[in-house]
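User: Can you predict the 3D structure of Peptidase S9 prolyl oligopeptidase catalytic domain-containing protein? Sequence below.
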Amino acid sequence: MHGGCATVTHAVQHALTGIIIQGTGNVRIIRHFMRGSALALVLTLSAVTAPAQTEPVKVERIQNGNIITENIPAIDAALGERLSAYLSARSAGMLDWTPDGKGILISTRFGETAQLHLVNGPMMARQQLTFAAEPITSAAFSPAKGSTDLVYVWDKGGSENFQFFHLDVATGKTSLVTDGKSRNQGLVWNHKGDKFAFSSTRRDGKNTDVYVGGLKDAATVAPLVAQTGSWSAVAFSQDDQKLLVGQYIAITKSYLSVVDVGTGQLTRIKPEKDTIALTGVGFTPDAKGVFLTSDEEGEFKRLGLHDLASGKTNWITANDPWDVEEAVLSHDGKRLAYVLNEGGWSTVRVIDTKTLKPVKLPTLPKGVIGGIAFSPDGSKLALSLTTPTAPADVHVVDLGKGNVEQWTKSEVGGLNTENFADATLVQFPTFDQRQIPAFLFKPKNAKGKLPVIMLIHGGPEGQSRPNFSATVQFWANELGAAVLLPNIRGSDGYGKTYLGLDNGFKREDSIKDIGALIDWVATQPDLDKDRIVVAGGSYGGYATLAAMTHYNDKLAGGASTVGISNFITFLEATAEYRRDLRRPEYGDERDPAMRAFLQKISPLTNVSKISKPMLIIQGYNDPRVPVGEAEQMVAAIRKNGGEVGYVLAMDEGHGFRKKSNQFVAQMAQAQFFRKVFGQTQ
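Assistant: Sure. Here are the predicted structure tokens for Peptidase S9 prolyl oligopeptidase catalytic domain-containing protein:
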């Protein structure tokens, strides 16, 4: 994942308090919170005065714990109380089965952060296993029979320097497995359950190598694959002698190889194809074939069975005009489950890997599916499923009986889900006659013209899906807004041509799509063209800032979260292991022509065009879009005499994950929207 948006899930029902630090005459900020070369402009500015004012602008920097705010109003208690109900909603993310196949491991939230829980049967109580200060959303049991070993992934303060920890579920004892310094991800247990493969930046901090080790030597073992680029483990063969590994270059360019675990010999699959997105699923039981996905046969990622000896691929989903977005093999390799992304909605299928014939499945609710996992004996398939009006919960399909049973039921803060806004797929025309898809959420029984919030996803190769969002529901039901989630060009899920329409010098074509959406809103009788705001996180944050420089006169305001303000400073300061992964998408800033172009289109360069109110939200520890991107944009808007609010969390990274921090950011957004919409309390 190369981008992301903050999610808000908590409420604090009293106003923030803190020490106010302000200057007299000039803006005087005691703390700059600078990181790297990205901070081209800082908040120590002199004579920051709006053109029409005789008194200098005064900025109050208020610190309350790990949250710092500037120009953010005191929290409205009544609005905060309503928000609290929505953001108390939680979900259940399927992670793994217990080794005996009797229970499931999920990630869910009871307190401040998401933690690991066991569920030992349908609708049974959730037994909390971890109690960390930071969220834990990834973990896997050793598949060894009778094992109580669990390895989970954890990072501190949103730094994304992920570490592995071993939890003995029988004793509750926890210990660090990795080195505590490098970035470690993608844990894959072998079939015996005594070792696991993973990727790490341990060697040089830039390249991501593949390692195979156990609980005692993972921190010191030599790499199995140590080459330039970003490599990851996919799956072991049944005898654990071979390992399938992937190399990621860009979302439209990735490779797949087989590694001999004993010798380290690496053999690339489909070496003759250099410009395809090739990803692995796993080996056939006899290790003579590999299940994989590739876009080489057309626009979409198809599922295929590749014969290693002949080099030929039998395409299983040749007749499906959609991407296969997720696939998993049973432990014995005899069954394979995969998920199709059908215009944002999910369809799950299961096949017999020997005959390639489908296994009959019961009907599931229409929604978005993730976290699919077979039980150890392959007889059941668990999956997380969310709909526009219900949070993600785990459903278990019994493949023998052909029925489905819901194992978890997540609360939604005591709210009546019948009042939630549902998702409607709409399309709008853009400048080159393409039809751009978007999901529209409107409050039920709405009257009159509705204000509009356009929420732009991150990535930029992400995709807005019709899943549950407590934030979207709050905006629709309590602010009375129509919420539009467009999948502007460059979004995943609509074919590789669409995916590449915003690359390099075509970057601003995606911003033109936002302009087309603004024009489309003006044609809708129930939407108010004079009350439109744009918001988004990560790349969506950039798109928000860029839209404000292009369509300032048509927008009421913009709210950017961890957004790129200058492509040059971003690419030079983003974490080193990410830099080469971002250049294929945004362009290489080391090329003079591309550098000049990126500088020209950056929101920071065009900040003088913004006169409407802005809100900027940032995590201090963000390794993807460093804090300097937010700080320099805030400073520039103020220097231009503009109005901007700022929320900075010192213990967060690329998006807010702690409930109390999430609430502050979401309240700032809600009150900002209400203000620019002209709504009273």
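The CA atoms of residues 122 and 407 lie 4 Å apart. The first strand starts at residue 19 and ends at 21.
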